[in-house]
Amino acid sequence: MTFKNALVLAATSGFALAQAQVVHAQTAPAATDAGDEIVVTGTRTEGRSKLDSASPVDVITANDLKQQGTTELATALANSVPSIDFPRPSGTDGTDAIRPATLRGMSPDQTLVLINGVRAHTSAMLNINGSVGRGSSAVDLNTIPSTALQSIEVLRDGASAQYGSDAIAGVVNLRLREADHGGGATVTYGMYDTDVDTARDSRHVNGEGTITAAGWQGLKLGNDGFITISGEYSHRDATSRGDVDPRLSTPVVDSRFGDPEAASYSGYVNAAKPLGDVWTLYAFGGYQYRNSTSAAFPRLASAMSAYDLEDIYPDGFLPLINSHSKDMTATGGLRGEIAGWKTDINVSYGRNRIDYWTRNSANYTYGADTQTDFYDGALIYDQLVAGADFSKEFNVFQSLNVAWGVEGRRESYQIKAGEPASYDYGTEYPNATAGAQGFTGFSPDNAIDKHRTNGSIYADIEAQVTNKLFIGLAGRGEDYSDFGKTATGKLSARYDFSPSFAIRGTASTGFRAPSLAQQYFTSIASVIDTTTNDTVLTGTFPSTSSVGEALGGKALKPEKSTNLSAGFVFRTGGFSLTVDGYRIHVRDQIGLSELLYASTNAEVAALLQPYGVSAARFFINGLASTTQGIDAVAHYKWNTDKAGTFDFTLAGNVNQIKVTKVPTQTSTVTTATLFARTRILTMEEGTPGEKVTGTMVWSKGKIGLTARETYYGNVVEPGSTAASDLDTGKKFITDLELRYQPTDSALQLAFGANNVFDVYPKKVPASLNSTGVVAFPYYSPFGYNGRYLYVRASLNW
How many domains does the chain have? Predict the structure, then answer.
């Protein structure tokens, strides 16, 4: 973060403060209290609001999620919170379908996700290709339908001492809808209407539609309980934003660079039932099935004769990667009181299974006898969590809340092999690349079944020492069956100089346990050594495998962090402003190494030769990075007698990440590059250094309007050299939505456009695009699909 950028954001915040004070002074009788929702994330004291907290918390309501063109939860969240980024990679295999979100530009797995305060399970997907979040397994936010939520709380602060592993960058808590009556249904249809200008082509695209139907219903459970049922169906056409292929005699677009085709249905249930005057039984859970199809790079007609495939694919073929994700979660618990201690005991199970197919493809080694569809195998992750939380308020100081609890967790990770033709060699062309073109299946050499357990205990004390001073202390200890013990702590404080102005700050340590996927993911392919005609292995090996250890791999350790934050809160009437600075230093960070080739390094060749391996990569501890920046959020709500109600929000994030340590050798490898510049620059510049969002929501009578302007700083998609780096450029994206609701009517109609002015990131120049496939940087934080038009009809009862 440059001084200039920090100064710009501070000046913007100050300008917003000055302007709001002027407006408030002129219209004080019409102003209402600024939105200051009660939060449960980052505190275990009941009744604390987001503006009263010692840590910065964003609250996104159900209306915030609904009043957008997108029906993807992660995209809607990124539109609402400047510190969250949700890029749309293409050509990255399974990551196209299950995309990771980042908080403050950090790794996706360094943000903890909770559902109703209970740890959510991660996806079985491991991002191993060249996308933002490479090497991470993160929670798939899009498995949860927006209609099932009443709000989302984003804690922008380290919280490992409070919640355990992963909460280095912060915490996202998804709070499910609670209702014993009423309901709603929404149908949204949208499509792209855009001019695509690539380095070699210009064309107009109209279509590529998305339809989403969602609904919820609240029901009584006896006289005093509730059950809320929510569901959603969505179908999204694939988008195509590639350039024409210059290798063809008649250049045309033969790729499908863009969003995958996807169809999904999901359902969620949230219920609670009092059992007498003290105890309440509760349960929630959901299921999603998603069928996604993305595209690999095209295979040209000119290559078909080499493998006797002219009759099957006379014009070449475009391999399609088809994933079926089945995601479920189920949680049950009891809330009540034991000896004056508020008590919450719960058990939660979550599971994600992803099955892969490669379609419209071929295994070259089989020649004309190849099949065209292949089952590639499956990835499976599940976790079982059981916890007990206790809290009690004591009459000490102004108030003293003491909380403590225990938690146990069991995780498992599996890789299932695909059918032989998806990975094996045929006899027709044994020197060709084996397996399905586009996505090679998992062989029995890749199959694994691993698990681990851990237990933890924590204590959390929050004291309102005086009317002005608040102090919080938290500590947590964990014991993992694979790497051992960790301990973390947190100190937070807040001082209110007046009802209008307060300062706040935190200092904490944090950790992230290496995921089972990072420890054990195996993706090994057999290839023919054309020099010796021997079959050798290449791919990703566990760091503790014989190959990994030969290259100096070791058992992975947890990442460790030190978090510092400080800021202030100002509020008066209907206006509020929060500004928070932060510094997060992560050490022992885990990264996926480059492929180390025996063919280019004699040292590596000698180490790999006994195992019949030609190239290998593995996960390594040892990276270190420092993230620092400023978050600012200004909000003002203005009620007028004649012009209606105006709700203004201006929020910005200035963020800088610097990789401060890069491992250059292991105990056995001293002359190979473990981490290329592409990996380092992706961490440092793969997400926006600046993001500012201004939103106005206006309503009067039957009419409502939402206008949003978002500024994205430049993002770099690094190449192998500086000359091949791709910049997205600094861009403004405008979104508009107009709503009409007849007075006293439950029906609402909405019309809107995302990216009204059809803005794209900078195009990939022809000199760096020899195939025409990747026409825009896929690190772009706002995508590269262009203008999106939509209509929505909602009915509430």
Answer: 1
pLDDT for the residue numbered 18: 37
Q: Is the pLDDT of residue 259 over 70?
A: yes
d(C-alpha 103, C-alpha 139), whole Å: 13
Domain that holds residue 116: 3-796
**CATH number, domain containing residue 215:** 2.40.170.20
**pLDDT tens digits, 72-96:** 999 999 999 999 999 888 888 788 8
Distinct helix (H) and strand (E) counts, the chain: 8, 35
* 120 and 101 Cβ atoms separated by less than 8 Å: no
C-alpha pair distances (Å), 389 with each of 158, 403, 736: 20, 7, 44
pLDDT digits (tens, 9 = 90+) for 370-417: 999 999 999 999 999 999 999 999 999 999 999 999 999 999 999 999
Joined together, the tokens standing for residue 54 give 């010692």
- The H or E element spanning position 583 is strand 575-592
- What pLDDT is attached to residue 533? 58
For the question of whether the overall pTM of this predicted structure is more than 0.85, the answer is yes
Note the helical H segments in 109-191: 160-163
Tens digits of per-residue pLDDT, 507-520? 999 999 999 999 99
Non-local CB neighbours of 157 within 8 Å, separated by 6+ positions: 42, 55, 56, 170, 506, 508, 563, 565, 582
The Cα 740–Cα 702 span in angstroms is: 6
Distance separating alpha carbons of residues 540 and 787, to the nearest angstrom: 39
CA atoms within 13 A on the CB side of 431: 6
Q: By the 8 A CB rule, do 700 and 645 touch?
A: yes
Quote the CA–CA distance of 468 and 36 in Å, as a whole number.
19
Residue 730, token pair as written in the block: 């600094």
Taking residue 324's Cβ as centre, other Cβ atoms within 10 Å add up to 15
